[in-house]
């Protein structure tokens, strides 16, 4: 049921993106906002559902396989979208995107993150699958299973590794690049998923753990917003 749900989300987002390109081609800003919003919604909604499957046996093989598979699927279906506020900083920093357009895309990403969480709460309330039964009662699932300083360093390191890899594989054939990136993300999730969740995406973190941001805003914004953004700025400064 969860796999069918995620496949349905991917198909619906693909249809929305196609209609947006056709109908709003002349309105560039609105088109860019909606395309980024739909794409980020897909990633956030699917990842929310994937988190419920983390304990499916055999552990962690099932969760890691699904992580790899859906990361490849996102890469193939969301071409041209960034879906990460940290990634949006790169073209803005390099002058390839205006500050206004960068702000528009980041706004779309956080709007999509909130919409994805609301949508998944509605889906879970229908209790279509066994993992959905207790999903709404979790509140803050507390992804930080280590000290705040260690969590900050882990998310910072993972962001640096991820962003550096993105820069290094820019010239690789797209059909191979998507698998390289998916493999890297899967490895990072395996290495640090049990400590911080290995998110390194501020919008995705907000979608997965909004209750945690409400309860401990300073702590979670430091680890899941500032750390990955700082990692991105380090890469941009050096390279």
TrEMBL record:
Keywords: Membrane, Transmembrane, Transmembrane helix. InterPro entries: AQP11/12_channel, Aquaporin-like, Aquaporin_11, Aquaporin_11/12, MIP. This is AQP11 protein. Its main location: membrane. It is found in: Membrane. PANTHER family: AQUAPORIN, AQUAPORIN-11. It comes from the Eukaryota. Belongs to the MIP/aquaporin (TC 1.A.8) family. AQP11/AQP12 subfamily. One of its GO terms (cellular component) is cytoplasm. The gene is Aqp11.
């Amino acid at each position: 049921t969860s796999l069918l749900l995620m496949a349905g989300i991917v198909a619906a987002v693909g249809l929305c993106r196609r209609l947006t390109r056709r109908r709003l081609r002349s309105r560039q800003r609105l088109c860019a906002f909606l395309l980024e919003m739909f794409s980020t919604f897909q990633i956030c909604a699917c990842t929310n559902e994937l988190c419920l499957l983390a304990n499916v046996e055999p552990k962690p093989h099932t969760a890691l396989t699904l992580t790899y598979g859906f990361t490849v699927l996102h890469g193939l279906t969301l071409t041209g979208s960034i879906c990460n506020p940290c990634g949006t900083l790169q073209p803005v920093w390099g002058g390839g995107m205006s500050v206004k357009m960068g702000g528009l895309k980041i706004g779309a990403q956080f709007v999509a993150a909130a919409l994805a969480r609301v949508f998944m709460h509605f889906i879970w309330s229908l209790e279509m699958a066994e993992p959905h039964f207790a999903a709404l009662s979790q509140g803050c699932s507390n992804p930080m299973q280590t000290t705040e300083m260690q969590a900050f360093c882990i998310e910072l390191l993972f962001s640096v590794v991820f962003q550096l890899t993105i820069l290094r594989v820019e010239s690789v054939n797209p059909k191979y690049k998507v698998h390289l990136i998916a493999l890297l993300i899967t490895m990072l999730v395996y290495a640090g998923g049990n400590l911080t969740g290995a998110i390194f995406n501020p919008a995705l973190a907000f979608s997965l753990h909004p209750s945690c941001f409400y309860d401990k805003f300073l702590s979670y914004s430091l680890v899941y917003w500032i750390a990955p953004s700082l990692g991105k700025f380090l890469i941009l400064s050096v390279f």
